[in-house]
Amino acid sequence: MATPALHPGRSRNFHHLRGRYLDEVDGAPSSSAYRTRFGSLLRAYQLVGFSPDRDYRYVEVNRALRRLHPEIVAQAMAGIRDVGGAVEQDPATDLLTVNGEFTVSIVLARCQETPSGTVRWHIRLDTGLAPDITVAVRMAPGNASIRDYYLLPRRDATLDRLRIGETNDLLLEAFRFDTLDALADLARRVSIMEAA
Questions:
Q1: pTM of the entire structure?
Q2: Which domain of life is it from (predicted)?
């Protein structure tokens, strides 16, 4: 891959190489062309031996989480249907409507390691959609597998973002589950005789 010609007065330091800069260079492929050809701009940089000062691994993690999200939504829907519940997905927002009674939003929380070695998660709550329940999928360290799930009711989700650690307040831990079975249990239909 040829190095784009630099404009006069521009830094020759490759640590300043950004997609926006590539798009400004006359005669060079656009940053989107690099993304299409190599999967990402970061991957193209790696192939030519470029190591940015900043850690951009989160970009690849976020891309993997975006691919994982539809799978988790599908698992949640299958679990609800397996217990006799009905579920519909809004194709524009991915908001689930369960039994025509309550709505569910599923969000993935990337595991982030702090400089001190502890881990934390930032959960973005979809306050614009105002779901009745937000299922926060907490990823394990390395972000390759799921650690657990938090089923957060809307009344307790007053902020648009929630920061949690490995150990949390007991009130928050009451909403933590190892599987999505708890969501399916909320959708389970029970006859009046069984409930009595």
A1: 0.68
A2: Bacteria
